[in-house]
Automatic annotation (TrEMBL):
Name of the featured protein: Transcriptional regulator with XRE-family HTH domain
Gene3D superfamilies on file: lambda repressor-like DNA-binding domains
Domain HTH cro/C1-type: 18-76
Pfam families associated with the record: DUF5753, HTH_31
Lineage of source species: Bacteria, Bacillati, Actinomycetota, Actinomycetes, Pseudonocardiales
Entry's Gene Ontology molecular function annotations: DNA binding
Origin species: Saccharopolyspora gloriosae
């Protein structure tokens, strides 16, 4: 029997945002409901994606919160397409705001499986690495915006040490570990940080050796996000866009690719040893 799909990624994003805006305004669901002629329980159910919201009701909510015109247009557009599955987002001048969408989905995840052929994932980066890669990929970001994004990324590492920490499993191509960046010693410090993080009970890191032949994930990086009470998602990122996938047929493809990768990569224990060996080698050879 086919599985009944849960709320779409767009619906989940709309609910997340309304929940955050209300928290920022410091008002209760009951207060919002009373002002708009709805029950507090209805506001809660909208914010937890149990029910959808009509456009005219959304207009009233956004009026009450006095959101900016830009945010209003974005949220109304999401609501109009809330039933559509899979979500392509084109990156634009509002890149930091676009990043917030990813961060909110990451915040609510209980598990994250990340295959990365080109760089160290954000949750495992040092500030030096984060600064270098954000500058390289951020286009026309101002120095202030780069600093803000680096600070945000460093704060997000707290997901790995909170009371119920995120379960993170990362598979990296071996070439990621030798890509130079920053000043002398920066890569060594990143390797040591990566090996230390890999010893956390909720963090697993594997390296895919350079001599491995073609495999199912040759098309590029992907992230599988898993949730306790909501359907899983796949997130794909390109230079000018990002894509959330949520159809089961797509999820199954990426789950199968992940199983293959985790089988052919170095085991976790060997990976930690290898990372430490690389760091020592770099220290010895300057």
């Amino acid at each position: 029997m086919p599985r009944r799909p849960g709320p779409s990624a767009r619906s989940r994003r709309l609910a997340q945002t309304l929940r955050k805006i209300r928290a920022e305004k410091g008002v209760s669901a009951a207060e919002v409901g009373k002002e708009l002629g709805m029950s507090g329980s209805k506001i809660n159910r909208i914010e937890t994606c149990e029910i959808g919201i009509y456009l005219d009701d959304l207009e009233k909510v956004l009026d009450f919160y006095q959101v900016t015109q830009q945010r209003r247009v974005e949220l109304l557009d999401i609501a109009r397409h809330a039933e559509q599955r899979s979500w392509l987002r084109t990156r634009n001048a509002h890149f930091p705001a676009d990043w917030q969408t990813w961060s909110d989905f990451e915040d609510e995840a209980t598990g994250l499986r990340h295959y990365e052929p080109l760089g160290i994932p954000g949750l495992l980066q040092t500030s030096e690495y984060a600064t270098s890669i954000i500058r390289a990929t951020g286009g026309s970001l101002l120095n202030r915006e780069v600093d803000e994004l680096v600070s945000s990324r460093m704060a997000r590492r707290g997901l790995l040490s909170k009371t119920q920490p995120l379960e993170l499993h990362v598979i990296l191509e071996e070439s990621v570990l030798t890509r130079p960046f920053g000043e002398s010693g920066a890569l060594t410090r990143q390797l040591r940080h990566l090996s230390d993080e890999a010893t956390r009970p909720n963090v697993t890191v594997q390296v895919l050796p350079a001599d491995v032949s073609f495999h199912a994930a040759m098309a590029g990086a992907f992230i599988l996000l898993e949730y306790d009470d909501e359907p899983s998602l796949v997130w794909l990122e390109q230079l000018s866009s990002s894509l959330f996938l949520e159809e089961e047929e797509h999820l199954d493809l990426y789950r199968a690719a992940w199983e293959e990768l985790s089988t052919i990569a170095f085991p976790p224990e060997k990976t930690v040893e290898y990372l430490r060996h690389l760091a020592v080698q770099r220290e010895q050879h300057g």
